Known about the structure:
Layout: E1 12-14, H1 17-25, E2 30-40, E3 47-51, E4 55-62, E5 65-69, E6 72-76, E7 81-84, E8 89-93, E9 102-112, E10 115-118, E11 123-125, H2 132-142, H3 146-172, H4 178-190, H5 198-204, H6 209-220, H7 224-242, H8 248-254, H9 260-271, H10 275-282
Parallel strand pairs: 1-10
Antiparallel strand pairs: 2-9, 3-8, 4-7, 4-9, 5-6, 5-8, 7-11, 9-10
Amino acid sequence: MPDLMRDEVVALVQHDEAAWQAALHDSASDLVTVISGHRRIKRPWQVGHRVMAQHFLFGLEAGEAQGQLDGTPFRLQAGSLLWASPGSSHGLFPVPGRSLPRCFHIRFQLIAGGKSIGFPGSMLSHDAFQWQWLLEHIHDNMLRPQAERSARLKSLLFYLFTEMRAQCRDASTGGLDRQQCARVLRTVERSPPGSVTPAGLASAVGLSPDYFTRLFRRRFGVAPRAWLMEQRVRRAAELLHDQTARSIGSIADELGYCDVFLFSRQFKQVMGCTPSAYRRRARGG
């Protein structure tokens, strides 16, 4: 089983958030990419537990993964983005019996004064599709020569950092806790597509529907019904991408849609295009 990462020993200095952001703005600092990639994983894999002096961004476009961050287990799904800060202990592994992920990953250092600059605390978002355009720009800039990309990448990463930090702070002000979120995810995973309701999720975590909806909004930023629809559509997008020989109607039926026109309307609402247009893009057309 190959390891996706390589060990390197680099001097690390941890700063508070203000100093980290100042280093990103400092024209004298340099952003060095260690590893970057954008691909579907096609064989057994892992990112072994380790403490590194580099920042590690790992996002899932499709599939699932699981791991630990400073000893705390977590689960990643399509739309999840992990930013592990330098000095944190983390590992990533496949989910047995689930499809291998299509991922975006980058490991980099922010160098100032000959040292790798970090910030305290890592970040994990399960709503990273809102930053898809930003991640695409980051990936595109990775393809540029090192001398050309540092300044642009620092600006893009600064924006991503502030967005993720704000989302984490919003979640910490209240909302479902980690165990409740895990129960929500398990309920959706183990139920027939389209059968889960907000009331069913509230029951799964032992809360009244109204109180559950308030806590869910604080944690995820959307109402449970809208989130359920988005998860269903994201699964449809994965099937459209991976199973190009299947009809759109067959995929809609598998996901519990009785009306293919409703499926198409909801798909466009979430993905910004129709299922047929998404499939053409997946085929390279």
